[in-house]
Amino acid sequence: MRRTAPWVSLVNTLGAARVRGARAHPGRVFDRMLSKAERLAEADAALAPEFVESYRFLLDCAAETEGISLFGWEGFVDDLTRRMASYLRVERLVAERSEIAREPIERPVVVTGLPRTGTTLTHRMLSAHHGNRAPLLWELVNTDLSGADEKLKRRRIRQARAMGRLGGMAAPGWNRIHPLEALQPEECVFALPHGHNFTTRASMPAYLAWLDAHDFTPDYEHYRRVLQVLQFGLPRRRWMLKAPFHLFNLDVLLKVFDGATIVWTHRAPSTVMGSWCSLVETARALTYRTVDPAPIGPEWLGIFPQGIEAARRVRAGAAPGRFIDVSYDRLTDNPHGELPILFGELEMGWTGAEEDTLRSVLERPDSKRGHQYRLSRYGIDADRVDREFGDYWGQ
Predict the structure, then answer these.
(1) Within the chain, which residues score under 50 in pLDDT?
(2) Distance CA 66, CA 64 (A)
């Protein structure tokens, strides 16, 4: 199975010398990135010095990645530049208009769980309810006030669409795995400054160790400000949020979003890991000149069980009702029966409108994202997965 389009290899071959030169001087590259981000945000990097330095470190980690391609390097450069611009813009807006910081983010619902466990179906259904609201991809990648002029808004939507199209063109199978659509609800990782999402693209041990020691409180406080900016000046609706990697930081999330309810989706880890490793292989095929799939399984078996255990510790000390469980198997076998139960637990009505939305979601071409994978391809087997996850699946 070919993971990338043929033209990607040609681009990487022609740009090999260019990426070698950039990797030799990542500090110079970062300084140019930061200047561009300041211009786009109309803000000074002095607003967030610690955040800026953390991204300098992240680019250094990318520069140390052996075998990184031009496509992969430029992907990091473009992504981090955009993220810095959006971060600085949000911080500038809140500094200029203190009333933004008083916007209440009330009783948000956070969908999380291991990847490939039905989080997207659950999130889209919750987001479609008339009293709810989810951040859209284009809002997360270029956060601004709702009153931004229509011309600017259309340009940012086009930019988000172009980002999604480029990914689909470079990796034709990507749209079966995780399609990116500008006007659809998307994962919080597009606005959270740091997380394990970066390590899907490249194996970066130094960054992974940094994440283990990182205090995520400033990250989630910034994300709260992102939601406040998006909400400011609009009717208030209940936020529906989603990201598998919230599992690692539920203690911080529940502290920053005091009234949040966690919807935790569950599926057999041996099934999850095969599907996830296939996604990572595709992501890394866009980053590296060549990809060896065998180390991917052991690497992520060293990551995800930690997230599960962290989440279970938080849950053990949480008040009753803060967590709601959703079974992937029951959800996919009987969505018309399971989703009304979930809606009831969240004190949301289930009507004919929700039934119509569910039929529409299930009829979408991307609702069944079949892609082929074998655990053995990724250096693991079902027994090893079960051992690493311990008693999680039997809880």
Answers:
(1) none
(2) 6
